Amino acid sequence: MLDMPNIRDTLRAEYDLAPNPDLAAKMQDEYARMARVVSPADWAIHAPYVAAINALKRDRNATILAHNYMTPEIYHGIGDVVGDSLQLAIAATQTDADVIVQCGVHFMAETSKILNPAKTVLMPDMDAGCSLAESITPAGIAEMRARYPGAPVVTYVNTTADVKAASDICCTSANAVQIIRALDADTIIMTPDQYLAQNVAAQVPEKRIVWWEGSCIVHEQYTAQDIREFRDWNPGTRIIAHPECPPDVVAESDFSGSTKGILDYVSAERPERAMLVTECSMASNISDAHPDVEFIGPCNMCPYMKKITLEKVLWSLHSMTTEITVPENVADKARLAVQRMIDLGAKG
Ligand code: 13P
Ligand code: SF4
Q: Record-annotated residues binding iminosuccinate (predicted)?
């Protein structure tokens, strides 16, 4: 657990972090990307942190990989690469930086470390976990293998390194269907997200897919009844769901895709009104680039993603903590599963 009062005192002694409207006014390029969702008063609070982090990034030759669920001031203010889990994993294989700061959750930082054993990978808050990653251990993978002998194990990237190491290949929500179709097996084990597995099974009926019973605490909260009622109250709204939602929610929606898939759909379709059935920050982050789209409706917050703040990122780069480590024998096996996924995706 981070000692925030102490960290705050140390940072304030080193950097000028008081709200600064003049600095905020000078940083209009950054602000323009989030002006629809961040007020000028809030920007005056964020701007000193954004300036300090971006200067430290240059000093340390660091890059920031920021997931689509980060808050707008992180996503637009300090992210060097922004995207879904697959885009961030691929970016981690391509960076020339010495240091990677992962603005996302712990499993994403582990994936970056697995792909870059020689680089320093920093996690601004080690408590940024994930309900899916917590739902399964290597013993769970062994249990599934015993139950379905010979079936390959496809594991969502939202898992710990040792679970990846016990699996045959990884997937993300962007490439799960492609990976399942490409495997030469009739029965396939998917872990740990039961809903992603069921949504994939609906698209690949020729294969028998069996799954672990994990779920995402953000997406499992939506119900088909919510979606039907929302559609009745807001006719004409395009409803776009992440595949971590239960299958009946996806069935009630107009489109389902990874967070990049959601962004691509909104960019291509430009609906007048859209409801994103996913984490709250997704709509905020794409709002300014889509001024003609009104984003409406309920959204759920991921408490793990929201542990990452500008203050913690500044501390992380200032103190070069907390460094992610993965034992070599685990990283070597996990890398095979992640790399197989990336290679298979590259084949198209
Ligand atoms: P994607 O960004 O890959 O769609 O994943 C969503 C998610 O829940 C990450 O934690
Ligand atoms: Fe995990 Fe769900 Fe949060 Fe993503 S949104 S990090 S899957 S709990």
A: 67, 85, 156-158, 173, 242-244, 259
Gap from CA of 133 to ligand 2 centroid (Å): 9
Mean pLDDT of 183-208: 98
**Contact call for residues 195 and 218 (beta carbons, < 8 A):** no
Residue nearest atom 6 in ligand 2 by C-alpha distance:
130
Residues 106 and 44 in one domain: yes
201: pLDDT strictly greater than 80: yes
Residues 23, 105, single domain; the answer is yes
Q: Provide the CATH number for the domain around residue 193.
A: 3.40.50.10800
- DSSP per position, 18-80: S--HHHHHH-HHHHHTTTTTS-HHHHHHHHHHHHHHHHHHHHHTEEEEEETTS-HHHHTTT-S
Which numbered atom of ligand 1 lies nearest the CA of 107? 10
Task: Give the tokens for residue 207.
Answer: 């294969």
3-state SS, residue 316: helix
**Ligand 1 shell residues, CB under 6 Å:** 68, 84-86, 158, 172-174, 216, 244, 258-259
242 annotated to bind ligand: yes
Residue 50 and residue 155 in one domain = no
Answer yes or no: is pLDDT of 257 > 90.
Answer: yes
Report how far ligand 2's centroid is from the alpha carbon of 233 (Å): 28
pLDDT band at 297; cut points 50, 70, 90: confident
Flag whether 125 is in a domain: yes
Look at ligand 2, atom 1, and give the residue with the nearest C-alpha.
130
Candidate of 136, 244, 305, 307 to mutate for ligand 2, largest count of ligand atoms within 8 Å of Cβ: 305
Closest atom of ligand 2 to CA, residue 105:
6
Q: Which of 102, 125, 104, 130 is nearest to 220 (CA)?
A: 130
Tokens of 333: 């096996």
341, pLDDT greater than 70: yes
Q: Quick one: 286 and 212 in the same domain?
A: no
Task: Give the model confidence (pLDDT) of 44-90 as tens digits.
Answer: 999 999 999 999 999 999 999 999 999 999 999 999 999 999 999 99
Would the pTM of this model clear 0.90, i.e. be above it?
yes
Atom of ligand 1 nearest to the CA of 305: 10
Question: Confidence band (pLDDT; 50, 70, 90) for 348?
Answer: low
